[in-house]
Write a structure and sequence with these properties.
Helix 4 runs antiparallel to helix 5, helix 7 packs antiparallel against helix 11 and helix 12 packs antiparallel against helix 13. It is elongated and about 105 Å long. The strands form five sheets. Strands 3, 4, 7, 8, 11, 13 and 15 form a seven-stranded parallel β-sheet that branches. The protein is an alpha/beta fold and about 450 residues long. The protein has three domains: about 140 residues, 3 Solenoid (Pectate Lyase C-like); about 180 residues, no CATH class; about 50 residues. Helix content is about 45%, strand content about 20%.
Length: about 450
């Protein structure tokens, strides 16, 4: 541990970044303490501040920034009880940077990467983070709500810390500051071989098809139970004689593949929703009218209600137990197979291989139950809100395309004015007509 005075510090800084960085590299294991100093008007590009404690030091109109070939880096640096007045950190990297008990006004981090740093134990006004990355940053403190989330990127560890703050909403595609309506949305780009993305139309189609496949499974189960409990012994459909037991046997493979299809499509939805960034996408996908995918709310009652009804919805194949279980009895199984409208030789094959047939039957039923559980698990992953940023809203690509089309139409109307062919006696009406067409396009643009 070594102490340095204000004059000595400024003297070392004035030697330049090469000399300073070499000095700090050779003595990085020894903490340097600077206390009660005033650092004003310095522009420090490419300086590396390693293992330094600034105590009760005032920074006024200073800039810490990247310089060509020299990275501005802060490691194990602590600004304890310091005062900041219009200080800028531009394009820096910081690891274990602390602003403990500091105060002041006008401190900003631009295009910076901040990792494992304590940034919110202070009384600094007008603290800004612009296009900065938060890696393992603690957002559980109340001061974290004073900043805008719009221009920061967060990692999974930062989101984990944010869960402890009741004023921060954790969503499927980022985090949301309830105080100033700003959101930090996931900005990662999917890999080229993943075939994923945030196109709302594709996600919506997956939801629609998943809903239809799941609805088919529910419908077949309910029809099977209805046939059994209304006391209908048998009926003929398309020349095939059907009773409750044979209908259940016919339905099992269809239910299995319907649930499998629904699971595959739900998995695609879970993967792709994190790339949604627009309000239209959040509303379209987040409020899609399907019990398994729709987010019901953050309140405890809403969560309990959602879980109960989704469990009942996904557990519908259990109703088939009342039909599947009796089939384990060999006599009952032989009667049911005999009622199947199939060749007699095939009936004999099933009856002679009763253990194998029962194993296949229970395997199908167990697979259906497994897929039902998987569908519930995927549904549970969707029980978070889809976020969008109100401070810096992202326009839907379709809206941008509409604006482009409108501007092109306006240009076309203006280029159509050919003064050689204009009826000069009726020029006023001609221009009014073109003006009205332009205004129509502008009104359409404003609506978008």
């Amino acid at each position: 541990m070594a102490t340095i005075t204000e004059e000595e510090l400024i003297f070392e800084l004035n030697k330049g970044e090469v000399s300073w960085n070499k000095w700090r590299h050779t003595s990085k294991n020894k903490q340097l303490i600077c206390e009660n100093a005033l650092i004003s008007g310095l522009s420090l590009g490419g300086y590396q501040f390693v293992n330094i404690l600034f105590k009760s030091t005032t920074f006024q109109e200073c800039q810490f920034q990247y310089k060509t070939f020299y990275e501005c880096h802060f490691e194990n640096s602590n600004f304890y009880n310091c005062e900041f007045r219009e200080v800028r950190f531009n394009n820096i990297k910081a690891n274990n940077l602390k602003l403990s008990h500091s105060k002041g006004q006008g401190l900003s981090f631009n295009n910076s990467v901040l990792e494992s740093s304590d940034l919110f134990d202070h009384k600094i006004e007008q603290l800004e983070f612009i296009q900065s990355d938060f890696l393992d940053i603690d957002l559980s403190k109340e001061n974290a709500l004073s900043i805008s989330f719009s221009n920061i990127k967060v990692d999974k560890k930062t989101i984990k810390h944010a869960k402890k703050n009741p004023k921060i909403t954790i969503g499927l595609n980022g985090i949301y500051n309830q105080i100033n309506n700003s959101a930090s949305l996931i900005t990662e780009t999917p890999k080229g071989d993943e075939m994923t993305g945030g196109k709302e139309e594709v996600i919506l189609k997956s939801l629609i098809k998943a809903k239809k496949a799941f609805a088919l499974s529910v419908s077949l189960t309910l029809i099977t139970m209805a046939i059994k409990f209304i006391g209908l012994n048998s009926f003929t459909y398309l020349g095939i004689r059907i009773n409750p037991n044979t209908f259940a046997l016919y339905s099992l493979p269809i239910i299995l593949f319907s649930l499998y299809k629904s699971n595959i499509l739900l998995k695609d939805v879970v993967i792709n929703v994190k790339y949604i960034k627009t309000q239209t996408g959040a509303m379209t996908i987040g409020r899609y009218p399907w019990l398994l995918s729709r987010f019901n709310g953050n309140k405890s009652f809403q969560k309990i209600e959602s879980i109960v009804f989704r469990v009942l919805y996904c557990a519908h194949p259990l109703l088939l137990l009342s039909i599947i279980n009796p089939l384990s009895n060999q006599v009952f199984f032989e009667e049911s197979v005999a009622n199947l409208d199939i060749a007699e030789s095939l009936c004999d094959l099933y009856i002679d291989n009763f253990p194998i047939a029962i194993f296949v039957l229970w395997f199908l039923f167990s697979s259906i139950i497994y897929l039902s559980i998987r569908a519930f698990c995927k549904s549970q992953k969707l029980q978070k809100p889809l976020l969008f940023d109100l401070v810096n809203p992202i326009r839907n690509p379709n809206e941008l395309n509409d604006i482009s089309v409108s501007l092109n139409n306006i240009l076309k109307y203006l280029l159509e004015i050919n003064f050689r062919k204009v009826d000069w006696d009726n020029l006023k009406n001609y221009l009014l007509k073109k003006s009205e067409l332009v205004n129509q396009e502008l009104r359409k643009n404003r609506k978008n």
